[in-house]
């Protein structure tokens, strides 16, 4: 696969996939075998790297959602070539926070329309005999490729990127400023931009994860478990792209019961007139 965007001089701009290299994910196409003309499915495998583990014992939910978005977005994009897609909503139910790994992801298209694609992704833990980890539904908007050259050898197979020695924790990689409370800020570094020059959807997912956990701890410091708190079920609506930054997540704790805290998360692009770019909710668990 190649993906390049035109530069100011007419030549290609190298949009290196820093986020894809950090969240390692092997992906492969699963063509239909019944001759029905249905869209291909996509399979994936993600190791549970130590630097991505959270208090729950497995991949942090923000990291898990990044892999789901990467696989589901590629799956949806293949169905609309030569056009492409952008994720507009991601709904994930997380059944387990502790993972042995590797995690196996399986995606299929539920609906392919003129202007949108709806797909589903299931995640299981191969190291735990295929025990279920998460289920997600993604909606993607179809858009013109805007000069990007998208070329795939079909059926495609994208290998697992090598492990980066000394890789930082997700909050450091995503330039999330330290702090506690109801507001958390992410600085938009160039490595966090996707080929269109906007904040990668995984950056929004990780910001929502970190911000919701901070807000839950601040609202009730005594509600955390022995290992703290961890994000679980998440709904994210991508309303507009983050183009300038910093991105600021503003949280409202809606309620706490039985070790579960529901947090509403609104993400704003401060450099773009403070406009609202994403809205969602995160369930934070005591672990």
Q: What would you say about this model in short?
A:
This protein is α+β, with helices and mostly antiparallel strands and about 290 residues long.
What is the global morphology? globular
- The poorly predicted ranges are 1-16
Strand order of the largest sheet: 10-3-4-6-7-8-5-12-15-14-13-11
Distance between the termini: 40 Å
CATH topology category name of the largest domain: Thiol Ester Dehydrase, Chain A
Query: Can you identify the CATH superfamily of the largest domain?
Result: Hotdog Thioesterase
How many DSSP H or I helices? 4
Strand elements, count: 15
Rg for CA atoms: 18 Å
CATH architecture of the largest domain: Roll
Which structural class fits the helix and strand makeup? alpha+beta
Strand percentage lies at 35-45%
| Topology as a string of helices (H) and strands (E) | EEHEEHEEEEEEHEHEEEE
Mean pLDDT: 90
Question: In which range does the helix fraction lie?
Answer: 10-25%
Count of the separate structural domains: 2
Largest sheet: 12 strands, antiparallel
Assigned CATH class of the largest domain = Alpha Beta
Overview of this structure, please?
This protein has a twelve-stranded antiparallel sheet with strand order 10-3-4-6-7-8-5-12-15-14-13-11. Strands 2-1-9 form a three-stranded antiparallel sheet, with no helix packed on it. The N terminus is likely disordered. It is α+β, with helices and mostly antiparallel strands and 287 residues long. It is 16% helix and 40% strand. It is built from four helices and 15 strands.
């Amino acid at each position: 696969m190649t993906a390049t965007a035109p530069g100011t001089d007419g030549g290609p701009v190298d949009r290196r996939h820093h986020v894809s290299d950090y969240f390692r994910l092997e992906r492969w196409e699963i063509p239909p075998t019944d001759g029905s003309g249905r869209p291909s499915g996509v399979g994936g495998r993600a190791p549970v790297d130590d630097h991505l583990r959270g208090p729950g014992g497995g991949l942090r939910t923000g990291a898990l959602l990044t892999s789901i978005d990467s696989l589901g977005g590629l799956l949806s994009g293949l169905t609309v070539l030569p056009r492409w897609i952008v994720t507009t909503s991601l709904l994930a139910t997380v059944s387990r926070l502790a993972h042995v790994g590797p995690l196996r992801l399986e995606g299929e298209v539920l609906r392919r329309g003129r202007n949108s694609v709806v797909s589903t992704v299931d995640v299981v833990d191969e190291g735990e005999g295929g025990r279920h980890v998460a289920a997600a539904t993604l909606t993607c908007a179809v858009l013109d490729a805007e000069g990007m050259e998208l070329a795939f050898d079909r059926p495609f197979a994208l290998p697992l990127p090598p492990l980066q020695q000394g890789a930082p924790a997700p909050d450091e990689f995503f330039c999330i400023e330290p702090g506690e409370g109801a507001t958390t800020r992410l600085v938009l570094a160039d490595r966090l931009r996707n080929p269109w020059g906007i904040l990668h959807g995984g950056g929004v997912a990780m910001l929502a994860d970190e911000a919701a956990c901070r807000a839950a701890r601040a609202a009730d410091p005594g509600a955390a478990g022995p290992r703290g708190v961890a994000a679980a079920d998440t709904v994210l609506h991508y309303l507009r792209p983050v183009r300038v930054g910093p991105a600021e997540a503003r949280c409202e704790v809606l309620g706490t019961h039985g070790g579960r805290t529901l947090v509403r998360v609104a993400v704003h692009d401060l450099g773009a007139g403070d406009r609202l770019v994403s809205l969602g909710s995160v369930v934070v668990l005591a672990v």
